[in-house]
Amino acid sequence: MRRRDLLKSTAGFAAAASLGGFGTRALAQEMPTFTPEEGASLRLLRWVPFVAGEEEAWNTNTAAFTEATGVQVQIDQESWEDVRPKAAVAANVGSGPDMVMSWFDDPFQYPDKLVDVTDLCTALGERDGGWYEGVKAYATQGDRFIAVPLCAIGNAICYRDSHMQAAGFNEFPTDTAGFLELCKAMQANGTPAGFPHGKAVGDGNNYAHWLLWSHGGMTVDENGQVAIDSPETRAAIEYAKQLYATFIPGTESWLDINNNRAFLAGEISLTANGVSLYYAAKKDAALAEIAEDLRTTNLPVGPVGESVELHQTSTLNIFQHTQYPNAAKAYVAWMFEPDNFNRWIEGASAYCCQPLKRYESNPVWSSNPIHVPYSKASASLRPNGYAGPLGPASAGVMADYVLVDMFAEAVTGQRSTDDAIANAARRIERYYRS
Amino acid sequence: MTPTEMRAAAPDRPRARPLLRRFVESRNGLGFLFMLPAAVFLICFLTYPLGLGVWLGFTDTTIGRPGVFVGLENYAWLFDDPVFLLAVFNTVLYTTVASVLKFALGLWLALILNERLPFKTFFRAIVLLPWVVPTVLSALAFWWIYDSQFSIISHVLMNWGWIDAPINFLGDPGAARASVIAANVWRGIPFVAISLLAGLQTIPQSLNEAAVLDGATAWQRFTKITLPLLTPIIAVVMTFSVLFTFTDFQLIYVLTRGGPVNATHLMATLSFQRAIPGGQLGEGAAIAVAMIPFLLAAILFSFFGLQRRKWQQGGQD
């Protein structure tokens, strides 16, 4: 990026802030100002929104940006699984969208094709209470920001309160041992739990990573050396086997939607999901009883002693092939204007958890107790491929369902614990070779 | 004339026609010109992608990063990879069982439809339905039929009191394989049946009549007349059927994505999983290329094994 394009004057920013809202003027001198290039226009490739409110807020903010700066922004949507290959091709051939709203490790698949956004992100972090460590890790290489952390899509336990109480629990257990007891009691009552052991991209990976990490396991160490073969992994698998024994039959075939369907049909009373499950129940009058009875909480803490989860995370990446890097940065800065960003977080009705600590106080989190666990997603989020570096290897291991398969092989008895670990180790080794 | 004399004589000859005109007017030249569009089309859209795929299989290309030549490294890894070997086993099992069933049931259906039936045209149209419905839609319907909690089959059987718990159609490896094969057979039968029906109608009725006069039983007429005369069309139909089945993707992707624990992963779905979401283009291409020998074997078998034989024209093999 060309430093001389980066105007440190505050005049432009103050003008923008007066259009954007309140409260930022006093801090304005800390924010760098990005003046869009003459005649700039932008194309953003984003994932298809999960909720209409989120899309509306994003588009409203975008329209206001266009009005304030004259920069047209075209927003293209792709289903969330197709964003990754499209963005990779765009980065590779050097044309296509100027910016992409991507998933997980994507910035690390093409780090040298991305515009350095350290100036913008450092200023945002300083102004807005700092980035959460987990989401920050998905966007930084060394001390450089190669992408702007956007949000975490939270995952949390959803359960039927009455069924938990009927099983003899007044409070939801906060540790893995108590959680197992709860699942056993709920199974005995005919109101079992269910977590996917099938090829569920989101829910299956969330569950498998939680199993491994909550017991202190890791796929690779800090240097990218395979570290899956450990007593911690064994403990995680043994725990998973005991949990699996309490599940409703058939979870090894579950894809992402199955646990939602089973929960809403009253077949299971405990699973983990995004907030969408609650809204599906709430919108359907026939499911009022379930919506009323539904509670959410964070996944229990394991022997590792802290809440660690994968969740899903998204970053905004600006490609170097864009002709208008300053316009792109100005756009991002605009979207992160506190008024605008608050509007967006609120519109997303607890699907999207903020990357900056300032937004913990967003009214969406206090508006409904169901939302509360999802507000902690960014705090408990641990980057994929822990404890190794992010990149094509970590992305490949997740996309190839290595951990999901390892647990599924062991819990269904298809392989012994040792064989399942050995198989996973081979596959991880392959991705991290060279 | 020696070459030297020819060169010496050339200037005395009448002026040669322009090269282009000579080329266009010659039989071979014109043929070449007419063939050119098809050749360009084939090279651009078939040979080049296939060649590129084969090349990618020898590299460690990932999405977003051009790879380097690694020789047979991808193949060495794959032949040591239990998931890949399982996918090969699944693919062969899936193709064999589904093709045999599709052939048997398809031929049976064709024979029935070839008889004098009331509403014959109507039935023939109905039979085509599974083939007409987009695969993804019928796969989604099967997804519900096989759901571990809401299966209509389990529901009915439980109501009848035959079973106590829902059948774990897609959760148990054996049941999952049987389920996806059943769905594939359901979808593939119409193609086989209608094609064989067309073949049956080309068999001259006089042959059957002559055989009846000679006292041949229905079974004898089927084995001595119908089947031999149908062999060429069976060869073509089954080649296509095997190819479609071997390269099936949509059904598995919708129903199981290869689960439970890879028990229904086919080579096509594994190739996609590793190449596109996984980003390992080189390895994905190697899996796709590994399908080619199987496909070639299937084609060669049906062409040389089932094609028109001399005895069908009255000669000896």
The parts of chain B where pLDDT drops under 50 for at least 5 residues are none
Largest sheet strand order of chain A: 4-3-5-12-8-13
Oligomer classification: heterodimer
Shape of chain B: flat
N-to-C order of helices and strands of chain B: HHHHHHHHHHHHHHH
Q: Name the chain pair with the biggest interface and residue counts per chain.
A: A-B, 43 and 35 residues
Alpha-beta content class of chain B: mainly alpha
Instruction: Please describe the biggest sheet of chain B, giving its number of strands, its sense, and whether it closes into a barrel.
Output: none
What is the residue-mean pLDDT of chain A, rounded to a whole number? 90
The level of helicity of chain A is 40-55%
CATH homology group of the largest domain in chain B: MetI-like
What is the percent of helical residues of chain B?
55-70%
Strand content of chain A: 5-15%
What gap, in angstroms, lies between the N and C termini of chain A? 30 Å
Strand content of chain B: under 5%
Radius of gyration of chain B: 27 Å
Enter the CATH topology name of the largest domain in chain B.
MetI-like fold
Total beta strands of chain B? 0
Distance between the termini of chain B: 51 Å
CATH class call of the largest domain in chain B: Mainly Alpha
Determine the number of helices of chain B (DSSP H or I, runs of at least 4 residues): 15
Helices and strands, with pairings:
The complex is a heterodimer of chains A (434) and B (317).
Chain A: E1 6-7, H1 11-20, E2 33-34, E3 41-47, H2 52-69, E4 72-78, H3 83-93, E5 99-103, H4 118-127, H5 133-137, E6 140-141, E7 144-145, E8 148-153, E9 156-160, H6 161-166, H7 176-188, H8 203-214, H9 231-244, H10 258-264, E10 270-273, H11 276-283, H12 288-293, E11 294-297, E12 312-318, H13 325-335, H14 338-347, E13 352-353, H15 363-366, H16 377-380, H17 392-399, H18 402-411, H19 417-431
Parallel strand pairs in A: 3-4, 3-5
Antiparallel strand pairs in A: 1-2, 5-12, 6-7, 8-12, 8-13, 9-10, 9-11
Helix pairs in contact in A: 2-14, 8-9, 18-19
Chain B: H1 3-9, H2 19-25, H3 27-56, H4 73-78, H5 82-114, H6 120-127, H7 129-132, H8 135-145, H9 152-159, H10 173-200, H11 205-213, H12 218-246, H13 250-255, H14 267-275, H15 281-306
Helix pairs in contact in B: 2-3, 3-15, 5-10, 5-12, 10-12, 12-15, 14-15
